[in-house]
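Posting for a labmate who doesn't have an account.
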Amino acid sequence: MPFLDRIDPELRPLLESAPEVDLEPYSLEQIAPISRSRPVVFPLVPHPDIEVLDDALEGNGVRLRIFKPRASDTALPAFVYFHGGGFFTGDLESNDSLCQTIALKQGCAVIAVDYRKAPEEPFPAGFDDCCAALRWTASSPMFDSNRTAIGGISAGAGLAAGVAMKARDEGGPAIAGQVLAIPCIDHRLTTASSQMDVDRRVWHRSLAKKAWTAYLANVTGDVPAYASPSIASDFSDLPPAFVSAEGEDILRDEAVEYAQNLMGASVPVDLRVYAGAYHGSFAYSPEAKISQQHFDEFNAALARFLASPT
């Protein structure tokens, strides 16, 4: 069955209206600046109940943006959020609206991280920024260190999975849960879905290979599990997880396999697969029923992670 025929009817119009661009002849060094220059799809409309604060990590100046309820005068539960973008694109502005919405729904603080990106700054630069942002959050009196979760979308979810592993290995900071939406977590691209024929207007195998090559450009020898969490040998003692996958996404099977690995190590996991969705469609078409379901279940899992201990 052709790719478009497999897509949920509510998700097709946006995909069909997008221009077809053949990226095969171009390097990631050429693709990245073009991708970063695209206008923000959902620009922030400030909400009167949410305060937005800008800060930066000491040392490298990586930007942080905090979204928090204005009325709060106590240490807030916190969600450290890593945006998607294939490790080479995306920024705070392109995720402002999403982060504000999460802060409103959860009554928590959302700390968005503008981590460094390939090809200019390959692994471990962006990963180190995400680890530093978690440590910054855990040490800040603004936030409740016992109710701090991490997560992200796509590459951001892959970064979150790696950060959770490093926090476990180093004995902290404590993480109440990890929200891994459509995670990009396996550089090998050997799953059945990674071979799937999908529309070139969505995340596809050729672009994924370019992105992974750029992200791992400084790695010599074995690829670290912090960079590609699926290859880890130990999944035990990791935080509870929400893992989602979109049915017509080349990343589908690596998400499912990762969730199974966590389950096999007795980590509580909520795994969801959304049939008829393509990579990122829940963010691109938020009004579709399947997208609303995805976002509602994302938020329900986050609410469980951030709940007060009983």
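Reply:
Got it, the structure tokens are right above this. The chain has a mean pLDDT of 96.
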